[in-house]
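Each record in this resource describes a single protein on a pair of labelled lines. With that in mind, the following record should read easily:

===
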Amino acid sequence: MECLNCKTIFEGNFCPNCGQKSQTKRFTFGKIINDAFKTITNTDKGLFSNFKNLTLHPGKYINGYIEGKRINVFNPFSYALIAIGLYLFMDHYYDYSLFESFKSSGYNKERTSNSNYNFWYQVGYFTYKYIKYFFLLNIFYLSILSALILKKRNFVEHIVINSFIVGHAIIISTLLIPIYSAPIIFNPLTYLIICALMYQVYKKYDYKLVVVITILLSILSSTILQFIAPLIGLYLKSLV
């Protein structure tokens, strides 16, 4: 039998060279829906598998993936993207009273001549309206300090680790929106979950205090960096 993908001659159900199945079915609407459903619910390698293992055994699961156990793990970057997509979908249906003024009011007519007021109003409005779309940048921000201090992993491996962590924190925070509704950027539960998951991943390092300090500094720096970019952008815009 010739492999449909790489043309290798083989016998059996899977190509030994690339893993392609020996037989494939034609695409139908039923097959597409079934494949998508399996991707999400498959308890061995689907989205649900990631959620279950990251909730019950986060350190073992993530470290195992980094060390090479990748067959039955849902891709961490896809997991993070699905997580933020789910959050944005849920966020669309919830209003946060703390920021209601940004939705219902425009510039104060008596203060429109005050450039400082207008600038900070724009900062507040941008934070409320758009910064949630950039929350996944925390994956990069968290990895900067963790890679500099916890050097057993390289920078890219820290990005992979934090993709799992940030994605899972977003999903749990999203599921808790009906109970505790707050914009993700200001939700303390999200950061507490990130801290807990990071500790589970790095707790086998020799110096626990260094791990705890690294986690706290990573969270602090990532939170600050989330606001620096829009501040710089809006400030430069105000100069034009």
